[in-house]
Design goal:
- The protein has about 90 residues and is of the alpha+beta class.
- It has two domains: about 10-50, no CATH class; about 60-90, no CATH class.
- Helix content is about 20%, strand content about 25%.
- The chain contains three helices and four strands, in the order ββααββα.
- The chain has helices at about 35-45, 50-55, 85-90, and strands spanning about 10-15, 20-25, 60-65, 70-75.
- The strands form two sheets. It has a two-stranded antiparallel sheet with strand order 1-2. The chain has a two-stranded antiparallel ribbon with strand order 3-4.
- The longest helix is centred in the middle third of the chain and has 7 residues, at about 35-45.
- The mean pLDDT is about 85.
Length: about 90
């Protein structure tokens, strides 16, 4: 299963070092924060497996928008709580 990734051609500048970026694996909507591969790696070093697996859980008291059940833990901090769903309702939807 070797799918070729679509590359987008352009003439962009890296905000870190000023290097010309001619190819990207995505079409940038905003070019004000584009970085070349080297600057990106320096700013965002790869995490090892232990850091990837660790998920921060947020504690709180919310209610499921579908069944009204209590939700006490989420893997993200909700900005809008009007459409939160418990695990069961999320799976069934």
């Amino acid at each position: 299963m070797n799918e070729e990734r679509k590359m987008f051609k352009g003439n962009w500048k890296c905000v870190g070092c000023g290097t010309t970026i001619s190819e990207l694996p995505f079409e940038p909507r905003d070019t004000s924060n584009l970085m070349c591969r080297d600057c990106h790696r320096t700013k965002n070093p790869r995490r090892d497996d232990s850091q990837r697996r660790e998920k921060r859980m947020f504690e709180g008291k919310w209610n499921c928008a579908d069944c009204g059940g209590e939700i006490t833990q989420l893997p993200f901090e909700p900005r809008d709580t009007s459409n939160l769903k418990c695990r069961n309702c999320f799976r069934n939807n």
